[in-house]
Design a protein that fits this description.
Blueprint (H helix, E strand, L loop, with lengths): L2 H17 L5 H17 L4 H14 L11 H17 L14 E6 L6 H14 L4 E6 L6 H11 L4 E2 L7 H14 L4 E6 L7 H14 L3 E7 L6 H11 L2 E7 L9 H9 L3 E5 L7 E3 L2 H8 L7 H11 L5 H7 L4 H14 L2 H5 L5 H5 L5 H16 L3 H5 L8 H11 L3 H19 L15 H6 L1
Parallel strand pairs: 1-4, 1-5, 2-3, 2-4, 5-6, 6-7
Antiparallel strand pairs: 7-8
The protein binds guanosine-5'-diphosphate.
Guanosine-5'-diphosphate binds next to helix 5.
GO cellular component, one term: cytosol
Organism: Erythranthe guttata
Protein name: Signal recognition particle 54 kDa protein
């Protein structure tokens, strides 16, 4: 199942429909036939695809739709809704209950982010008042226990592991027993990953599974593996009863198409996604925003935004800085300049995470522009040192007062600018290391979809 291709084929079909002068039944049928072909090629079950087609046709009833209706939008929304249904396996995964002991086993290949995700999962629940505990049953990778111990200590989560015991099964059993006695309600067992799917790994995993009898097995998958996701997920599912999937590294460049494959292969829902290396960069997974992203329909679509920026800013000036993640006040200043040049604002900004709703609510472009100009005036009163530093500690009270005096604005306006900078720096920081695609490499599609 080739997910990136699937997303691309479906988007192309929608784009063709979009380009048609008149939207009639033939155009809709052509579009649906293309989508059907793509889904079948991607091994989606025939009945699912057929149901999807029937449902969309029911929603888009040409006889019932009055002339003024935006048929393109109605069709797009119907397709989106039906695709979401495919991603939703229909049955929710086992849900541990607070106060009642559950054992959750994590499986996945080495490097997928399994150990990091174990801690994130524990921390997520701990913040909600659970009593989680971590057991390191990875005796294969040197340093695995140290890593888990370090993460667990940071988050103040009890952990269990051994430097000397080489049998993962006995460690897992001992750890689980111990934390059951301590009344932990979420006992998380991290298993070993290795580089490849090999018989020994699966056998070991199966043994740990049988010995600890987990209530839930979570398959952790790196979102960038793309095409390999389906086979990988299936192989794990055949060895142990995978009940849920967590997709990691969704902050990277990959659109995370592999998640759909994993759902199809394991018939299990994606429950969370990892969005960074830090403990709290972990989000509950929602189907609809994900499908939006897969098809390039959503806000926050970098490729559309990057392409647009390349149209107005001299090459490598702006983009280099963004990809280095070196977000200073000067970067912000230059971005504001670019944005003012780019117009029409709302269209550009809808593509830009962080800017769209908070800074620039739709329909209030004039106010938004005024706000940006105000921010820029305040930054005009900053020294070069302040503009080029991303160290907020340096912005002490006397500096803020000086900036406020310099631009003739109240201190609270400068504080507001500081808050805005902090919020955007966090979002832009996530672009660190991102490969900047060359012009033409990106889907022109997202622009059409956003239009
Ligand atoms: P394991 O071998 O599967 O246990 O993988 P690790 O937990 O050691 O993670 C491998 C690498 O991926 C580490 O450098 C992690 O910091 C990183 N990582 C894990 N999850 C994420 C994520 O959601 N986003 C990013 N950017 N990095 C992640």
């Amino acid at each position: 199942m080739v997910l990136a291709q699937l997303g691309g084929s479906i988007s192309r079909a929608i784009q063709q429909m979009n380009n048609a002068t008149i939207i009639d039944e033939k155009v809709l049928n052509d579009c649906l036939n293309e989508i059907t072909r793509a889904l079948l090629q991607a091994d989606v079950q025939f009945t699912l695809v057929r149901n999807m087609q029937t449902n969309i046709k029911k929603i888009v009833d040409f006889d019932a739709l009055a002339a003024g209706h935006n048929k393109r939008n109605i069709i797009k929304q119907a397709i989106l809704k039906e695709l979401c249904k495919i991603l939703d396996p229909g049955k929710p995964s086992f849900a541990p209950k607070k106060g009642k002991t559950s054992v959750v086993m994590f499986v996945g290949l080495q490097g997928s982010g399994k150990t990091t995700t174990c801690t994130k999962y524990a921390y997520f629940h701990q913040k909600k008042g659970w009593k989680p505990a971590l057991v390191c049953a990875d005796t294969f990778r040197a340093g695995a226990f140290d890593q888990l111990k370090q993460n667990a200590t940071k988050a103040k989560i009890p952990f269990y592991g051994s430097y000397t015991e080489s049998d993962p099964v006995s460690i897992a059993v001992e750890g689980v027993e111990r934390f059951k006695k301590e009344n932990c309600d979420l006992i998380i067992v991290d298993t070993s990953g290795r580089h490849m799917q090999e018989a020994a790994l699966f056998e070991e995993m199966r043994q740990v599974y049988e010995a600890t009898k987990p209530d839930l097995v979570i398959f952790v998958m790196d979102s960038s593996i793309g095409q390999a996701a389906f086979d990988q997920a299936k192989a794990f599912k055949q060895s142990v009863a995978v009940g849920a999937v967590i997709v990691t590294k969704m902050d990277g460049h990959a659109k995370g198409g592999g998640a759909l494959s994993a759902v199809a292969a394991t018939k299990s829902p994606v429950i969370f996604m990892g969005t960074g290396e830090h403990m709290d960069e972990f989000e509950v997974f929602d189907v609809e925003p994900f499908v939006n992203r897969l098809l390039g329909m959503g806000g926050g679509d970098w490729s559309g935004f990057v392409e647009r920026i390349q149209e107005v800013v001299p090459k490598d000036q702006q983009l280099e800085k963004l990809s280095q993640g070196n977000f200073t006040f000067r970067t912000l200043y230059e971005q504001f300049q670019t944005l003012l040049k780019m117009g029409p604002m709302s269209q550009v900004l809808s593509m830009l995470p962080g800017f769209s709703q908070e800074l620039m609510p739709e329909g209030r472009e004039k106010e938004s522009q005024a706000k940006i100009k105000r921010y820029m005036t305040m930054m005009d009163s900053m020294t070069n040192q302040e503009l080029d530093s991303s160290n907020l500690k340096m912005m002490n009270e006397s500096r803020l007062m000086r900036i406020a005096r310099g631009c003739g604005r109240p201190l609270r306006d400068v504080m507001e600018l500081l808050e805005e900078y902090k919020r955007l720096a966090k979002i832009w920081g996530k672009m660190k290391g991102m490969k900047i695609p060359k012009k033409g490499e990106m889907s022109a599609l997202s622009r059409n979809m956003n239009a």
